[in-house]
Every structure is written in structure tokens, then in C-alpha cells.
Amino acid sequence: MPSITSWMRLEPRSRDAEMNTSLQARIYDPLWLLARQWQFGEFQGEDNGSPVMARWRAESAPLTRYHSGAIPPTTRVDAPNYDGSRMPLETLVEREPVRSAADQTAQQEKLRLAADAGQQFLRMLELQPLSRDYREAFIAEYPFPTLTVEQRATLDRDSLGFFDLMASRVPDGRRLYAAFRSADAGGIAIAPVLHIASPDLAEVEKAARLWLQWYETLFSEPDVNNSSWLPERMEYAFSVATRLSDGECTLTAQEYFDGHLDWYSFDANPEVSLGAGTDNPSREITHSVIPAPVSFRGMPAARFWEFEDAQVDFGSVDAGPTDLARMLLVEFALDYGNDWFVVPIDLDVGFVYRTRSLIITNTFGDRTLIKSSSELGEPHSTWRMFQHSYTRESGITKPAMNLFFLPPSLLKSMESRPIEEVLLLRDEMANLAWAVERLIESPAERPLSRFETYLEKKRRNELRTADKAASAAGPLRYRLSTEIPDYWIPLVPARVGEGLRLKRGAVLKTDGSPEPVTAKGLILTPDPGRALEMYEEEVPREGVRITRNYQYTRWFDGSTHVWIGRRKQIGRGEGSSGLRFDVLANGP
Fold first, then answer.
1. Which among 407, 414, 299, 405 is positioned nearest to 352, based on CA atoms?
2. ∠ CA 478-484-487 to the nearest 5 degrees?
3. pLDDT tens digit string along 186-209?
4. Lowest CB count within 10 Å: 206, 304, 393, 561, which one?
5. Alpha carbons 120 and 99: distance in angstroms, whole number
6. Dihedral angle at the C-alpha atoms of 455, 457, 458, 460, nearest 10 degrees?
7. pTM beyond 0.90
8. SS3 of residue 175 by DSSP
9. What pLDDT, on a 0 to 100 scale, did the predictor assign at position 577?
10. How far is Cα 421 from Cα 438, in angstroms, rounded to an integer?
11. Taking a C-beta distance cutoff of 8 angstroms, is the pair 550, 442 a contact?
């Protein structure tokens, strides 16, 4: 029968007024200390040697291919080459055209950029040693287009005031760029009507060349329109690829919308090929480092007389009988937190790594091969928290074995206020889904509230029809439907194939004019000739908020990048447009 053993509690006691003797923690009887260690089971031989050396072998391959947009399964394309050290991956994926095209100089858009570009050219021109001032000559030769009465009526008050202020003071940067780039073989075309003196021609061409470099590198823009944005999903989709020892490795990000990319944003996609199988092969790397104990806030102090930090007190954590995760956390922090080690390894961003082996050497000289969880068999091989999964289309349920991707992503970036904002919400009373354009980008490149514009327009109409409404206030009038704000765009359900889509619709104005209520922003206006057909599940009951913002960041090579990106967030719940049919109301 097992014996029942008990001990008396031993406590230090000082008979002196001072605590110096007790604080020294003297030990006069080593045998007593050995007995205490035996009582606590420290002689059972359960502890192993501490790790003193870790040798990690792996293969690494840089990203060599990039494909924007969704890619169907069993697709083989020759994607363009990609270098992760040139720019962040978020910039490459999100960027969209910012400057106006050469054939859009007559349109009233990007007025502030056109004015700032023209003013910047005048600054650069003044820095050159010229015989006379050519400021008025450039303003007269490249002026802003004259606005007609109809065009002035379409501009908001701020944009119109900005145009009237700057049109006669600076040249149009859009027309200036088109004129300079009209020369062949990368030359600079200087119009003869400017009457540049011969001694000043070289200085003017130098200013024009510097200005073109500034104008073309001010924003990070794609060569063509960005196809990574999927209007039917209101998300970004793209793929990257590299070549490993066993062939091409393709990683696909199918749902990117929050502004930050990390390894868990990508899934292994063996069904497609981007042409990376012929690129340079991967290389073997080896790192030998000293493992370091894992540290975390609130862990027990290692020294004997060290006061522990009370900011994180795991001992005061309350856990019920069903709080298994909380109890495991406390158990790890208090009992097993000092049994974990981390192996610090410096890796290059923009590379895909595959671990070959990890060998740990302890204090006794024993070497142990640490296998991946995917090599240990069931049930350990199903552990996939820190591993890449395969895409749903591939049908592979196991995780990608020993694969680690360090994407060239941003740590931090600066973001402007939204220049465009759209709310996607459901209206149960009207049995419709709506796209509410709260903000759009004005011609002066400022956020323009369509709600305030609608209220101002409605107020003017009410003042204009006040007398008519007063005289016709008696009899009731039949209305087919109530008025819908002009910034509420209906999303009409339609059957597309075997699924249900939400197509962008239009509502006629209630004043009897045949002009429909349409979207004015870029979020609800896809490429020309392409209808907006969203998947129904992309508009949940809690709604969706989509914004366009200017982004600014600095890359590790010191270069700066400015671009326009889009963000998708949770909305503000359901809404009501007030739409009703067959209404009797007072009015003319």
C-alpha cells in the first residue's frame, strides 16, 4: 500500500529588528536542501539537456512571376516577371491610374493635379538661368479649357471656385505633358510659338526633362488599368509564383481587401501555372544559431529574489470548468513557459522557403532531428495553423508541406481620408439591396458628399415650387412611388447562370424627366462595357463599406510610393431608402 507522507511547513523567522540576515537566504545544511529537492521531485531525471545549437537547412526561391486578377483552374499563362525588391506587393496589387490620359485633357477631372503640375513646372523653370521670363508664354500656350455654361453647371461650388482661381495663373499640366511627350525617341518637343530664345533652349529642355521625370514618378500607376480589383467581389485577387526543387510553386490570394498582406493571405494553387518553371532554380541555405528561450509578458521571474511584473497576473485569471482554452493558457504560462525556445533566423523578403531539416544539439552533445508536424502521421499531420492551405478548387484537404512565404509587404503606411465611399446595404422594407454613394471624388480631387449635394438641390427645388405647392395643397395626388435620393443606386437581383447576382440598376427621377439616377464614382463604375454584377453573398445583413484612399509608404530601399487603393470593411447594418409604391400625398 502507498504510504501517506506529510511534512511540516518550514518558514524563516528573524528575532532581530532588521531583516538583513533573512534576506541573505543562507543555507547552513546542504543535506536539508537536497531533501527539499527530493520532495519536489527534482531528482526523477525528467529534465533533458538544454538546447545550445540549432542547425536549419532549407531551400529558398525568390518570387519571379506576378499575375493580376482571378485565374481559373487548369490555366497556363506566361505571367510577367516580378521583382519583390522594387516595390511593396500591396502597391503593385492596389494601384490604379491617377493621372488623366492624353486624350482626356478637355474633360473636367483631376483639376488640382493639373494645376499643381503646371505650377511645379513654373517653379523648375524659374530655377534655370534664363535671359527672360517665359511664364506667361507657357500659360497662354497651354491654358485650361474654357468651360461652357453646361459644364459649369455640372461642377460643384468648390471645384468651380478652384478652376476660376487657377485657370489664368498656371498652365494645364495635362496639356503640358502631352505636348512635351509628342516628340519621337524620348525627346522633348518645344513648341515654336513659345518663342524660346536660342541661348535659353537648352535650359528650357532641361527643366522640361526634370519636370517629366517628376510627373511620371509622382504616383505609382500600372501600365494599363488594374485588373486585380474584382467588382463582382469588391476584393482584390492575384497570384505569384516561383520555382522550387520539385517544380513551380504558385500562391494565390483570392480575397484581399484589408490593406495588409501576410503569408496567411495566400493559398497554394497547384492547378495553375504562371510560367515560373523555366526560371532560375532555388538554392540551398543553412543557418546555425543558438536557440533563445521564449519570453512573454507575465512569465515567472527566473531569478530567486526578483520581483515579478504585476501588469500581467496569470494567477488571477478566472477559469470555469468549460474554459479549456483559458486553462491551457494559464498552464502554459505558469508551468511550461520556460520549456520553449525560439530559433532566430534572418530571411529575405519576397522569398518562398521550404524546410529541409532542423537538428538540435543539447548540452550533452546529443543531436535530435525535429520533424515537421506533417511528417508525424495522424493525428499530428492535420495540424495546419501555421501552414499554407490549398485552394478550394484543387480539392486537396492537407496543408502544403513545410512551406513558408515571406511576402514583400508593408509594415506601416500613411492613409488619407477617403476620397470615395460606398455603403452596400439591404433594405428589407423595399426588398432591395442598395449601393449608397456617400462620397465621390470631385473634379478638384476633394471628397464630395453626395448627401449634402442632394440636400442642397432638394432645398432649391422646394423654394422654387413653394408657391405651386401652397396653391395645390388641397387635393390629394397619386404617386407611383416616393422619391429616392439620387445617391442611392439600386442593386437588382438577376439570375446569371446557376447563381444569383446583384446588378446595378437605375431609378427614374420623380420630376417626370427621363434622366435616370446613376452612379458617379469609380467604385460602382467598372471598366467601360462591363456591367456591375455582384455576388449576392457580398452584401450581407450587416452591410459593407468600401473606400478609395491615397496611400503613402517608404520601401526598404529608401524609395517612396504613392498610390490609390481600395478598402473593404464591415458596414453599419441595414438601412431604409423610404421607397414606397402607390402613394397618395399632397402636392402639385
1. 405
2. 160
3. 678 888 899 999 999 999 999 999
4. 304
5. 15
6. 120
7. no
8. helix
9. 82
10. 6
11. no
Q: How many helices (H) and strands (E) does the chain have?
A: 12, 25
Tell me how far apart the alpha carbons of residues 154 and 89 are, in angstroms, rounded to a whole number: 38
95 near 384, Cβ under 8 Å?
A: no
Could you tell me where the DSSP H helices lie in 127-189? 135-141, 149-154, 157-166, 173-180
Nearest CA-CA partner of 105 in 150, 155, 142: 142
Q: Which helix (H) or strand (E) holds 507?
A: strand 507-508
Q: Which of 369, 392, 414 is nearest to 267 (CA)?
A: 392
The DSSP call for residue 318 is -
How far is Cα of residue 588 from the mean position of the Cα atoms in its chain? 51
List of residues 6+ apart from 91 with CB closer than 8 A: 220, 551, 553, 561, 563
Name the DSSP class of 281. P
Whether the CB-CB separation of 272 and 250 falls below 8 Å is answered with yes
**Dihedral pair phi/psi, residue 455, rounded to 5°:** -65, -40
Q: Is the pLDDT of residue 561 over 70?
A: yes
pLDDT at 11 over 80: no
Burial of 45 (0-12, 13-18, 19+ CB in 10 A): exposed
To which residue does cell 537547412 refer?
Answer: 57
Residue type, 534: M
Residue type, 335: D
Please give the grid coordinates belonging to residue 140: 497662354
Identity of residue 115 = A
Instruction: Report whether 358 contacts 341 (CB < 8 A).
Output: no
Could you identify the residue written with the cell 474554459?
323
Residue position matching grid coordinates 395643397 = 473
Mean predicted lDDT score pLDDT of the chain: 85
- The residue count for the chain: 588
